[in-house]
Every structure is written in C-alpha cells, then in structure tokens.
Design a protein that fits this description.
249 residues; 42% strand; 4 helices; Bactericidal permeability-increasing protein, domain 1; 6-stranded antiparallel β-sheet; elongated; alpha+beta; 10 strands
Amino acid sequence: MKYLILLAVLCGAAVAKSVKQLPDSWSVCKKSDPQLQKCFKEAVSQAIHGLAESGEPSLGIFTVDPLRMTQLNIGQGTGPVAIDLEFRDLDLMGMKGAVFDDATIDPKTYDITASLHVPTGLTLDGQYSIKGKVLVLPINGDGHCHLKLADPVLRADIRGVPVKRGSETFFNVTTFAFTLETKKLSLNFENLFNGNKELGSTMNHFLNENSAEVLKELKPAISDGFGEVFKQIANRVFSKVPLDKIYPD
C-alpha cells in the first residue's frame, strides 16, 4: 500500500488577514469575458511566476522557488519498491522555468484544470532517511539527497466549494489532484549503508539505471504529497480574498 504524510509546509509563516482583493500585479478575469479561458490561463501563469519569483507577503505566501517542505514521508509497503522514505528540509527548485500549456475554469462549478511543463527541469534537495528494499536489493541510509526531474510535465485538477463567511463568499479547495510525468529521474543519496562509499556508489548507480521503475512505483505517493502542498498554497489565496474579487461577474 502506498501512503504519504505531509507534516509541514513552509510556504509562508506569516498569517495574513483577509486582504479583500488580489495583489495589484495579478490579473482578474470576469465570467462575462468572451475570452475567459485565455484570460484565465494568462492570469494563472502570471500568478505562479510571481509566487516563484518573490512570493506574496500580503497573502502570507513566501517564494515558492524554492518551496521548502520540512518533512515528507513516503511509505511503500509492498511491490518491487518496498521502503520507508522520509525527506526533511526538502527544497523544490525550478518553478521559475515553468511554461503553462493550458489552464481552464468552469464558470459554474469553478472546477480548474491546469497543465505545464518545466523544460529546465525541477530539483529536489534536502535530507533523507530510507530503509527497505528496491527491486531485489536492500537499502538503508541517512544523509543528504539530490533528485533531478528532466523536463517534467505537471497536471492539476482542482475541485472545491464556495463557503459563506458573514456577508462574503470564499472558495475552499477540497481536492487538488496532481500528476507528474518526467523524461528522466536522476537520484543521488549520500551516506548510504552507514557511509560505505563502495556500496553507496553501487546503489546510486543501480537506482539511476532503474529510475523508470522506481518512479513508477513511487509516483502515486509523490503526486499525492505535492497535491497536498499546492492545495495548501491555493487555499492561502482563496481563504483571504472573496470569490467575487477573484472571479467577478
């Protein structure tokens, strides 16, 4: 069984009050706009790149490039990859290079879909601990790790519900389904097997030679984890700005 627990996300330590409107640098798309979907795609791209560059303090969001996750646990109990893998102080880097391929919104349900790719790649850098089995080989270690996703393609399907607070209506994201594809996954785990360099080098070589199989097994759990990360970021925006200021008639 695959499972993932996101224990903390440092996407903005400050708790901002309701700000009543989006930042001036963000675009607003009206439901009545005949070019609504084009406007929405451009607005989403603009917002994500702005958050990647400098964050948005008024919304309580620090920069998302790098995006720091203090702890991310992946438990993979059965199958070819059976491991307990914990990441700590893990930084996701590279979102500044994201290119949006599509973004749409349903004007009635507010369902959102978005897809993008990152031709410059995404990097994950932090600390790890691992114990278990990868394919036929046992693995254990604790130390620094570095992972690289080559030209990844990301897709998000977002669902939520309007929530009334006093006289105003806000939007609460309830589901952020996230999928990830990549041309190649490169991995490097330092200090495997209590620092045995020969065994560690052999295992890293083995992991990279079989990275497609490793990614196939771990991808559902990783996708769930990052979906939860981005859901929290989305709700930082939607919980502070009324729906009619984000998406007016």
